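Long-time lurker, first post. I've been practising inverse folding by hand and with some scripts of my own, and I keep getting stuck on stretches where the structure tokens seem ambiguous. Below is the full token string for one chain I'm working on. Before anyone asks, I'm not after the true native sequence, just a reasonable design that respects the backbone. If someone could post their per-position residues I'd love to compare against what I wrote down in my notebook.
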């Protein structure tokens, strides 16, 4: 489990793709504090750390994850949002995030303001029922609040800290981003179906 509060910005050192899997090597500042088997959120995708060195860790990525997320499109040098799994005594600064990406959205527009930036992202129909105005959504692993909601898009307002400490500040119009809807909304829907 994660909070959606990005703890570090890492970079892709190597990406080895096969037909239906990949091994991603990531340069990260916290490698000394993780062990093999630890969960790390990479752009919002929960991965298991393996082959840890002083400044890198690797993770295996299944074919299903490559299909459902943007991880397969990463290249060496790309910046990635990183978060270590939360501890039982961690402050829940964002919201409950599983690292299970529901869909991929596209950045449609960026509107800068003096002290923040509004980013409009396409809202895939498969998760639209779980997204509400002023509710939580995870974009590239970052816990954000939906500021405005349309039929096929939503907007988030990014403060300077988010723009500089995550990869969202560098994303351009047309870039794809990983989305995770609020787990509580999905559970409520399931309960109501029963």
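-- Answer (accepted) --
I ran through it position by position. Result:
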């Amino acid at each position: 489990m994660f909070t959606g509060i990005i703890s570090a910005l890492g970079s892709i050192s190597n990406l080895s793709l096969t037909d239906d899997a990949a091994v991603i090597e990531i340069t990260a500042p916290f490698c000394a504090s993780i062990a093999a088997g630890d969960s790390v959120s990479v752009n919002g995708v929960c991965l298991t750390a393996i082959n840890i060195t002083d400044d890198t860790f690797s993770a295996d990525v299944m074919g299903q994850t490559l299909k459902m997320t943007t991880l397969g499109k990463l290249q060496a040098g790309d910046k990635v949002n990183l978060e270590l799994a939360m501890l039982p005594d961690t402050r829940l600064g964002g919201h409950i995030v599983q690292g299970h990406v529901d869909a991929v959205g596209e950045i449609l527009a960026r509107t800068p303001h003096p002290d923040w930036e509004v980013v409009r992202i396409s809202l895939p129909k498969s998760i639209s029922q779980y997204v509400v105005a002023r509710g939580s959504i995870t974009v590239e692993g970052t816990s954000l609040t939906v500021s405005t909601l349309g039929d096929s898009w939503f907007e988030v307002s990014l403060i300077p800290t988010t723009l500089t400490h995550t990869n969202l500040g560098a994303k351009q119009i047309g870039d794809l981003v990983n989305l995770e809807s609020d787990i509580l909304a999905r559970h409520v829907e399931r309960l109501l179906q029963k």
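A couple of notes from the structure itself: Residues 8-84 form a domain with the Elongation Factor Tu (Ef-tu); domain 3 fold (CATH 2.40.30.20). The longest helix spans residues 183-193. Happy to go over any region you disagree with.
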